[in-house]
Amino acid sequence: MSSQPHKPTPAKFPTAHGSDRELRADARRNREQVLRTAQQLFATEGLGVSLDEIARRAGVGPGTVHRHFPSKEALYLAVAIDQIEQLVAEAETLAATDDPAALFTLLSRMMANGAENAAVKSALSAAEFDLRTAAPSVAADLTRHVTDLLDRAHAAGAVRHDLAAEELMALVAGAFAAIRHAGAEASPQRSAHIARLILDGLRPQPR
Amino acid sequence: MSSQPHKPTPAKFPTAHGSDRELRADARRNREQVLRTAQQLFATEGLGVSLDEIARRAGVGPGTVHRHFPSKEALYLAVAIDQIEQLVAEAETLAATDDPAALFTLLSRMMANGAENAAVKSALSAAEFDLRTAAPSVAADLTRHVTDLLDRAHAAGAVRHDLAAEELMALVAGAFAAIRHAGAEASPQRSAHIARLILDGLRPQPR
Hints:
homodimer; 207 residues; mainly alpha; 2 domains; disordered N terminus
């Protein structure tokens, strides 16, 4: 490269054919397409799937994947963070309602999502990486929503009085372990039932 | 050794000073003392503790430990099986009562025991070894008692109707994961509360 100092460096994006805004939108769509494809392939085929195969299935060039995600670990982490951001968005929607039991809906979604998605499970149960380190603001958003929804449920008497915020994430991790132990990860119906057993224990108790 | 063919092989036990029955009782007491000591040391100091240290704290010679347990792994497994045998004994006592909620007492004991004892946790959650392979009859006894107590609880309406036997051990494993995630392993009070949250979800539900 240094032997051709006058040759212009090729643009990483073909800026000649669109506005910056369009290109940014295009790059964002590509990135999202890679994330969705990777999420599905990690779930169905595990971590053995290659970055090139993910690019092929996403319908983008290998360079596009490598540009956004320098390693499979980086892509795996990005998938997890992307999924947690979707949970945060769901939490925001739930927070905007006045449903006193919205906490149960959110916890149920977290358990279902993690049961079928190893990256989400890792992120929520701090198993392979700690979301608070990897994406502090996303982790903080999720924690804040869970705590707010718990406060609302407490105020409405929709949850047992002796339930603490720090126990909630522990029970989510517990649900993942129970679902895995039962071999129910591939059955949304069976994993939902185990989640329901655990969530029902959090409702106000007659005793 | 082969140069002294006429010298009698030393007896491994000093048979000159007691009846066979006394000696067997003595060996059994030593074995149990080693198991108790190992269980406590594994719990407080982890697997790093040496067999010789276990012998010293148990008040027996190193040879006694090595004779009963050829490796630390063998001792760890024996500790786990010993603890599960105690749970089976508790289950037998509970089965002899007519308490319809005896199942909850047994599950609560399993969760408490595993929370403070890594070997028990491994055995009950099939984490490091599978009890069904390592000690099939003990595993079968425990499974049979859990199933019988669940049947009794179902018949008495003491448990939710949609709870299956195979979900129970999954929930025990889930409780261990939740307790660990909450960092509550060193607090019997906090781990008991998490266990209670999970067990309350198994009671008959009003909804």
